[in-house]
Amino acid sequence: VERPKVLYNASTKTYVMYLHIDSPSYGEARAGVATSDTPCGAYHYRGSSQPLGRQSKDIGVYQDTDGSGYLLRRDPASGLRV
Per-domain residue ranges for the chain? Predict the structure, then answer.
């Protein structure tokens, strides 16, 4: 688990943590998700995936003024993805 980032989801009233999930050899490069009712936890792991079938490394998040959240990630094969 690396680089956790947290956004607040006003529609569900939960905090959503995005994190880099990987194997010791860094071959998986997945984006993980966990949720909590408070910013300090406890967080409940909800799973991980490779969004759009692409690796997710060096993740970041952005929350727009309208509350929309975006996952920013680097895919070694094709660069930055949003």
Answer: 2-81
